[in-house]
Amino acid sequence: MNAQACLYKESKILVVDGDPDSAKPLSQYLSAQGWMVSQAESGQEALVRVQEQAFDLIFLNLQLPDTDGHALCREIRARSSAGVIVTSGCDDRVERIVSYESGADVFFPKPLQLRELHACGKNLLARIRHRQPQAAPAGTALFASQDWHFSAESQMIACGTGTQASLTRNETLVLQALISNAGRVMPREELLKALGNREWNYSDRTIDVLIARLRGKFKQLAIDTGCLVTHYGIGYMFMEIAPAI
Q: Which residues form the DNA-binding region (predicted)?
């Protein structure tokens, strides 16, 4: 078995579908290809799984019992850097456009062609891993001051008293990009590319959601959120707060 095949066989896949009978053929087919497949039958279950485990690919059926599939796609995009392949029984232009605007990488109409879906997933995995940003060296902090510090390798922030808050992968990547470009305004499009995602469009709120989550965690640790500066209509900037004299 070559190195590429081994890499694919380590891939973690989440199939989200409100109909277990519909999800079963896809899950079985992907498992037969050597992928590690998990299933979720509702939007809430999907979000719990995404929070608990880092998936490489998510196959998301838009028809769910407890939530709008497009809203769930936006939530997943804000929490995970996984590739998202949307499947839907409704194959029209508007459905496709809204899916892409919600963060989908690929749109597939039903009935699903499993071999084609698998090939598409492999190609998407290859692109995502090729664009994967490198984490900071182990044991190092990307930012440190007397008040708080941030470690990209550990995916956490900590205040001076030692209290910590863990970050999701996407929160880590956004904060890492901002700190690496401290003092420079980073457009939303540039920040989105730091996540390894598709092209940005005006309706994409992924970065805004991630910044809001970061500010919430800063507040939990009593860290001044003023270091995350909003430039309306453009993007965000990291600015270290000077200590009071």
A: 140-240
Domain for residue 245, yes or no? no
CATH code for position 166: 1.10.10.10
Last residue of a domain, one of 106, 130, 154: 130
User: What predicted TM-score, i.e. pTM, was given to this entire model?
Assistant: 0.58
Q: Which domain holds residue 97?
A: 3-130
d(CA 84, CA 77): 8
- DSSP secondary structure, 185-237, as one string: -EEHHHHHHHTT-----TT--HHHHHHHHHHHHHHHTT--GGGEEEETTTEEE
Q: How far apart are CA 141 and CA 245, in angstroms?
A: 26
pLDDT tens for residues 108-154?
Answer: 988 889 999 999 998 888 876 655 444 444 445 678 887 899 988 88
Describe the crossing of helices 69-79 and 206-220 by its angle, rounded to 10 degrees. 60
Q: How many domains are there within the chain?
A: 2
CA dihedral 172, 81, 78, 165 (to 10 degrees): -30
